[in-house]
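RESIDUES AND SHAPES:
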Amino acid sequence: MTAAPTATEVASAVRSGTVRAATVLEGHLAAIDAAEAGIHAFNLVTREQARSDAAAVDAAVDAGHDPGLLAGVPVALKDNLCTRGVPTTCSSAILAGWRPPYDATVVTRLRRAGAVVVGKTNMDEFAMGSSTETSATGPTRNPHDLDRVPGGSSGGSAAAVAAGFAPIALGSDTGGSIRQPAALCGVVGMKPTYGTVSRYGLVAFASSLDQVGPFARSVADAALCFDVIGGHDEADSTSLNRPTPRVLSVLDDGVEGMTVGVLAEFLDGADPVVVARARAAAEALAAAGARVEEVSVPEVALALSAYYLIAPAEASSNLARYDGVRFGLRVDADDTVAMNTATRSAGFGAEVKRRVMLGTYALSAGYMDAYYGKALRVRTLIIEGFARAYQRCDVLLGPTTPTTAFPLGAKVGDPLSMYLSDVCTIPTNLAGHPAISVPFGTDDAGLPVGVQLLAPALAESTLFRAAAVVEAAAPDGSGRGGGTT
């Protein structure tokens, strides 16, 4: 891997006028040209629009204006974030060629901060997957080993940052879809508190779980991006109307006096090398002044079962809008019912169909209370279990994933095995809390290992303080960004 500049470095240089945004952009486009064919991180590279945006940043600097905190920083967007006039497909045939008439709020905020959008990244179809293999455009490959998955569902965004195609990318996290690929690709990935980042313009999978967050080459870059995209949005009814934690300013505050709980349930069943890395990160936090203890939240063992009732149920409702009438693919037939059926049969992939059918069944008459209603009660138990743990601990720690990146195709035919890839990340989504994955060394094959930190709602500042300490203690070769194999 070859080094590439961080977002913080790029923005500082462009704002000071020592580097041109156009020069930065061309360097990243060259990296894409050199390696994208083997990785397939992008569904679309928006070259000409990016060049126009970079020129506007340079013009602002020349005129003595400050373009913003992300001046000239190339940013990649997961292909479920709406971009005005630019195809947004969710990596699904049913949305092929659809061009939204508006930008997602996070996209607007990035552009106002001077960021330069370089393209839309590949993903599991409608964010349903853990390996970016369910995409209608084909799988993305892990830049650390092209025969392995990058994780999912935001695998294209994780791979883009790991490969040096962009210092920052946005993803969405419904059950771990930012943190899991971040861990497998050796980059930082952060899921905010539900409601702190606008979901307006994010194509919905499971509305009570989805949250937009950053991938980055460093904790500082992730903090910079979160400070830009966070904040109340009147266009999003789920947006919290209260101050969003600012995190960039607290990165150097350390963990002196903080209590860190090593979550026992996340260690059970994980590969020994992953467990060892998590324990080493705990030791690093202790050495930095934190009090470390092992804690148990038994309720998280129920999270996977509850999630795969709640999320498919919400997906069943959300995906009902793809009917062949209003937008996207339409397969003509003799009547409306036949047209709906033909359109969805042709437009949705196997995993999406599986989850929609599961969700529809869970919501059907006679079964809703037995399945969906019970899953919601389990969700409440998980929230209460975390609340008890946070009475003792400021943050919790454990592996992000139970294994490192697995080979392409290894789990495609075994959905349960694939779903277990998210066993350490799903509980946080059900609780609505923030969490971050930080690269922390590699396994014997040189594949990245991610360590996950969790915090209570709106405790992003505490979360980032701990993450900065873990990052500083990470072993050499932990994969903090850049370059291609």
